[in-house]
């Protein structure tokens, strides 16, 4: 008995797919990089006014060869989940450029040490099944920021990682890092790379060449379309859904032209552009509706799916942050997304908070419990009879209760559920801060060591040398 959330019927998903295919055939896609444009043209596309028109049969062939399922592993080669079956892999939101300290109202630039701490906290939290390269350390030169972030995650956690490259040159080196940790990274992937088309219907040099390289190297690519209602896409939810679908389909087509069977994940991070401030609200109901609709489109195509939900647009860890995070996390889980990025995030995906990460872990666990639904209990009638007739209503005394309590009941660890008489009265944000400090003091993450660490360190040195830079000592 499993609850679910859906927006589109199969017929409606088919109709929207038809509309998106017509967009690709008539409006087409702009590729900034001429080499990538050439791949699309040689694969059957047609150039018109600087845009590549992609025929329907090219997209349909790409959908035929794209893998329906992707097995995701941890750093040590143990299977974590099968993407494409509603895996619900919650992970911290990626690439925040600032961090909010406890007690502060103003975020600051994050450091490598901040990233290390976040990775350790995320490694401990049970509601987060994966890591991400969640912070961009400011003291690291721009040329190597993307790969240095990945190094920290690989060193301090065994969980799978969602990441991405900021440059064309560094992506092969980042994949080389994966190979340094485990040679069979392609057969047993433990990293997913985000690639983002630029709305509306275009691909930059960096993201398109990253997608091409990922396909050639056999690394899962998460195609993150980002329509902004009223600014970079039609203002209607329906129009934005069509654009989103067309952009993701263009990425799937490109990846399969490079290498049929290349692993791809249907993703997104739609926004509502605020009419007064121009800010990109990710938790706006219109943006959430787009996400839920494209989950149905991914299901229609039988492809693994990703979303940015379980996060907040608030500036601080307050009521708005909790409400936005909880409702989007629950919807994402009930919709059955495979990868759900966003935990810990504030302020339009630009800020991370360790305290919010701890609180969001509770929201992720609750969302997961809701999505797990109701398991049939053949002993329920006997337990009911015993509880009423023999124990006089005291179900706590039943063996049945002792046997099933831990598997059936989720008890939040940080949220304050104590009665008023026993409540400490300490604000929830303070309790979360104390939990962060406890985790950092007590949790011993599974550090990479031995030959694997030596190989990773060698790639780390190679990264800096390739840019003619003096290495910052790794944390």
From TrEMBL:
Lineage top rank: taxon: Archaea
GO biological process: methanogenesis; methylation
InterPro entries: MttB-like_sf (IPR038601), MTTB_MeTrfase (IPR010426)
Pfam families per record: MTTB
Entry keyword Nucleus: no
One GO molecular-function entry: methyltransferase activity
Keyword Methyltransferase part of the UniProt annotation: yes
Keywords linked to the UniProt accession: Methyltransferase, Transferase
Similarity comment: family membership: Belongs to the trimethylamine methyltransferase family.
Identification of the protein by name: Trimethylamine:corrinoid methyltransferase
């Amino acid at each position: 008995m499993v609850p679910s959330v859906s927006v589109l019927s199969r017929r409606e998903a088919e109709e929207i797919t038809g509309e998106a295919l017509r967009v690709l055939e008539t409006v087409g896609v702009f590729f900034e990089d001429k080499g990538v444009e050439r791949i699309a043209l040689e694969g059957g596309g047609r150039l018109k006014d600087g845009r590549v028109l992609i025929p329907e049969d090219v997209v349909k062939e790409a959908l035929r060869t794209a893998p329906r399922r992707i097995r995701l592993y941890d750093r040590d080669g143990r299977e974590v989940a099968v993407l494409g079956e509603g895996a619900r892999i919650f992970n911290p939101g990626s690439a925040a450029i600032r961090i909010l300290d406890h007690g502060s109202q103003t975020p600051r630039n994050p450091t490598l040490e901040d990233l290390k701490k976040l990775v350790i906290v995320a490694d401990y939290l049970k509601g987060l099944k994966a890591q991400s390269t969640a912070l961009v350390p400011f003291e690291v030169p721009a040329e190597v920021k993307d790969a240095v972030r990945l190094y920290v995650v690989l060193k301090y956690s065994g969980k799978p990682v969602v990441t991405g490259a900021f440059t064309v040159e560094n992506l092969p080196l980042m994949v080389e890092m994966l190979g340094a940790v485990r040679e069979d990274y392609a057969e047993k992937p433990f990293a997913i790379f985000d690639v983002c088309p630029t709305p509306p219907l275009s691909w930059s040099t960096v993201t398109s060449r990253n997608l091409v390289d990922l396909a050639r190297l056999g690394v899962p690519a998460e195609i993150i379309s980002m329509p902004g209602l009223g600014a970079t896409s039609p203002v209607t939810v329906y129009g934005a859904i069509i654009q989103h679908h067309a952009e993701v389909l263009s990425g799937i087509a490109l990846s399969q032209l490079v290498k049929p069977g290349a692993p791809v994940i249907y993703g997104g991070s739609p926004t509502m552009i605020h009419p007064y401030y121009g800010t990109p609200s990710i938790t706006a109901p219109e943006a959430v509706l787009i996400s839920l609709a494209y989950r149905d489109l991914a299901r229609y195509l039988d492809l693994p799916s990703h979303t940015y939900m379980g996060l907040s647009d608030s500036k601080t860890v307050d009521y708005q942050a909790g409400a936005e995070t909880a409702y989007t996390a629950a919807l994402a889980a009930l919709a059955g997304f495979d990868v759900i990025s966003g935990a810990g995030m504030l302020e339009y995906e630009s800020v991370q908070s360790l305290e919010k990460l701890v609180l969001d872990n509770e929201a992720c666990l609750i969302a997961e419990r809701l999505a797990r639904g109701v398991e049939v209990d053949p002993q329920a009638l006997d337990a009911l009879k015993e509880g009423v007739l023999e124990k006089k209503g005291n179900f706590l005394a039943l063996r049945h209760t002792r046997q099933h309590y831990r598997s059936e009941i989720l008890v939040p660890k940080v949220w304050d559920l104590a009665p008023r008489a026993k409540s400490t009265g300490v604000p929830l944000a303070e309790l979360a801060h104390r939990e962060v400090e406890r985790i950092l003091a007590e949790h011993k993450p599974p550090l990479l060591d031995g030959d694997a660490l030596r190989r990773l360190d060698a790639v780390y040195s190679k990264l800096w040398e390739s840019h003619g830079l003096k290495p910052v000592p790794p944390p």
